[in-house]
Amino acid sequence: MSNYIFELKMKVRDYECDLQGIVNNANYQHYMEHTRHEFLLLAGANVADLHEKGIDPVVARISIAFKTPLRSGDEFISKLYLKKEGIRYVFHQDLFRLPDQKIVVRAVVDTVCLVNGRLTDTPLFAEIFQSYLQ
């Protein structure tokens, strides 16, 4: 898919796996959140700095389809693209196992912004995401 605007390579750590030897389902959310935070840094925003200013991007909804499990030591690439729908920024995130590029996870993550605790649309994100929106 050529819509991706950001990607991040990662590796599975032993402690992220369950008794079955595969990555525990909750860790996929950690991988995707880390990818979004790294993307924000690239776009010019740091989550900790935003919080200090009273701006908190938060997940409103997440839908994950698990396709192929990852195991300890597997390397994978996390890719995303972004859409704006109303006040939501919708991240489409896919993880691919390396080196065979087999799809691991497909996810849609709806995020919203709280400014001083109130749900709102902030011009800051409109500005920093302008060149990334599809």
Mean of residue pLDDT values: 95
Outline the biggest β-sheet: 6 strands, antiparallel
What is the helix tally? 3
- Radius of gyration (CA) equals 15 Å
Helix % is 10-25%
Tell me the name of the CATH homologous superfamily: Hotdog Thioesterase
Q: What is the total domain count?
A: 1
- Structural class, judged by helices and strands? alpha+beta
Question: How much of the polypeptide forms β-strand, as a percent range?
Answer: 35-45%
Task: Give start-end ranges of low-pLDDT stretches.
Answer: none
Shape: elongated
Please write the string of helix (H) and strand (E) elements: EHHEEEEEH
Concise description?
It contains three helices and six strands. It is α+β, with helices and mostly antiparallel strands and 134 residues long. It has a single domain, classed as Hotdog Thioesterase (Thiol Ester Dehydrase, Chain A), CATH 3.10.129.10.
Explained architecture:
A hairpin with a 2-residue loop joins strand 5 and strand 6. The model has no long low-confidence stretch (mean pLDDT about 95). This protein has one domain: Thiol Ester Dehydrase, Chain A (Roll), CATH 3.10.129.10. Strands 1, 2, 3, 4, 5 and 6 form a 6-stranded antiparallel beta sheet that branches. With about 130 residues, it is α+β, with helices and mostly antiparallel strands. The protein is built from 3 helices and 6 strands; from the N terminus they run E-H-H-E-E-E-E-E-H. It is elongated, with a radius of gyration of 15 Å. The two termini are about 15 Å apart.
